[in-house]
Request: fold
Amino acid sequence: MEILRHAHSGLRWLVLIFVLAAIINSLGKTKGSTPFTGKDKSLALIGLIVTHLQLVIGLILYFISPKVMFSGTAMKDPALRFFLVEHSVMMLIAITLITIGYSRAKRLADDGKKFKTILTFYALGLLLILIAIPWPFRNLGGSWF
Reply:
């Protein structure tokens, strides 16, 4: 359990790095003058893969963690409610947005639209991820690693 929690907490940094890298890579390339190369696709794919890996670890933790208790009293405790509902739902939406963005982008013919799709969906996903992370300053029991 402790290994999974640390892996999930540490992997968040890879998620943030690769999703942000895919966003930065797409900035300024939405006009269509820059070709969408294998490097661009790989960067977006790595961002997608690490978010899905994070999802798998998160789902395992969701069902074995004592922070997630399915009881009526859990909704009254802000930290328990956060992990039971808010964190889980926002992360699922964020990963869904990133997955949709990657899937749509790879089917498009226009390179500018590919970059714009990745930029839009990955940025929305990143925003939700940043909101849903239990940062230490939020007093929800999260840590930096």
User: Anything to note?
Assistant: The CA atoms of residues 21 and 43 lie 7 Å apart. Residues 2-138 form one domain.
